[in-house]
Amino acid sequence: MSLFKCSHSISVSELLLLLSLVSGSCQASVLNGVVGEEVFLPCVTTEPVVKTTKVFWRDGNDTAVLNIEDSKDTFSSPKYSGRVSSFPEEYPKGNFSIVIRNLRLEDADTYDCDIPDQDFTLKVKLEVTGQLLYSYSKCCLNPELSANT
Ligand SMILES: *[C@@H]1O[C@H](CO)[C@@H](O)[C@H](O)[C@H]1NC(C)=O
Ligand SMILES: *[C@@H]1O[C@H](CO)[C@@H](O)[C@H](O)[C@H]1NC(C)=O
Questions:
Q1: Does the C-beta of 106 come closer than 6 Å to ligand 1?
Q2: What is the DSSP letter of 26?
Q3: pTM of full prediction above 0.85
Q4: Can you list the residues of the chain whose pLDDT is less than 50?
Q5: The CATH number of the domain where 52 resides is what?
Q6: Nearest bound ligand to CA 45?
Q7: What is the number of the ligand closest to the CA of 80?
Q8: Interatomic CA distance for residues 146 and 110, integer angstroms
Q9: Cross-referenced SMART domains, in alphabetical order (predicted)?
Q10: Positive or negative, the Cα torsion across 130, 133, 138, 144?
Q11: Residue 100, number of CB atoms within 10 A of its CB
């Protein structure tokens, strides 16, 4: 038994990564957002979910994006507070996806959806782009360019 355990120490997230590499779909976990808009971060488990199932969304700094406990969203750290929602009616289906609103450039990060009871971790990479063209033309971030015109 112990030998079996030791030789199967690969984590669920590693397995998911391997599977996605094998199927060539590793791009699927990269999402694109735009500053000021909102983005949907998917997290769906196929394991049975009970009322007490806890889900912890974390950013790359291990900051709490959203905690889901006892079928309620219970906590977001100040960085995300008021900008994150989930879908309680979907929890029983194992759907713990979230939406982050009013995106900021610094939201570009890797997010983890952790379900410790199930040993389940899903990683989602978020890229955020701003209206750079707009700000460049309005401002003087590139003085050489404006001097030439
Ligand atoms: C992560 O933490 C470091 C150190 O506290 C900080 O400099 C950095 O801005 C943080 N990153 C994000 C995305 O919050
Ligand atoms: C999860 O819930 C969201 C919000 O209702 C929905 O848009 C999405 O399709 C659901 N995902 C799955 C796999 O059911």
A1: yes
A2: G
A3: no
A4: 1-10, 12, 15-16, 18-28, 137, 145-149
A5: 2.60.40.10
A6: 2
A7: 1
A8: 36
A9: IG
A10: positive
A11: 25
Q: Give the range of the structural domain holding residue 80, as residue numbers without chain letter.
A: 34-130
Q: How far apart are CA 57 and CA 37, in angstroms?
A: 20
Q: Is residue 148 part of a domain?
A: no
- Looking at the CA of 90, which ligand is closest? 2
Give residue 43's pLDDT.
97
Half-sphere exposure of 107 (CA within 13 A, CB side): 27
- How many domains, in total, are found in the chain? 1
Would 25 be classed as within a structural domain? no
Protein residue whose Cα sits closest to atom 7 of ligand 1: 61
Residue of the CA atom closest to atom 2 of ligand 1:
61
Residues 98/86, Cβ–Cβ less than 8 Å: yes
CA separation for the pair 90, 109 (Å, rounded): 25
Give the up-direction half-sphere exposure of residue 118: CA atoms within 13 A in the CB hemisphere. Answer: 21
> How many angstroms is it from 38 CA to the middle of ligand 1?
21
pLDDT in tens, 67-86: 999 999 999 999 999 999 99
Percentage of the chain exceeding pLDDT 90: 67
Measure 77 CA to ligand 1 centroid, in angstroms: 13
